[in-house]
Amino acid sequence: MPEPAPSRVDKIDVERDRGLTLIFGDGRSCFFPNEQLRRDCPCATCRGLRDAGEPAWPRPGGPPSARIEGAELVGAWGVSFQWNDGHSTGIYPFDALRSWCDQEVAADEAR
Predict the structure, then answer these.
(1) DSSP assignment string, 24-76
(2) For the domain 9-110, what is the CATH code?
(3) What is the pTM of this model?
């Protein structure tokens, strides 16, 4: 029997005020708070801001907290969000989200 695919997502739960929970094919459950998702948005604009030493979020004049206004699957490989600050161009690949989760688990175990 083949090994479960660690970056395959079996369950997605979006809590608009809190964040995203994914359950991956190997059973690992990962929670991503809104602030982390919005701050680390992978789109070109947000990457460019971070590369220039500026935060992608929060931005001057923006809302004080990040809220998911909408979410949709991008094929079978990712998810995109519409944020309360009007931003909506980031696509979060499931393999990248799994990597974020694994890095957080490793950091927690090292503490």
Answers:
(1) ETTS-EEEEEHHHHHHT--SHHHHHHHHTT--SSS-TTS-SS--EEEEEEETT
(2) 3.30.2020.30
(3) 0.89
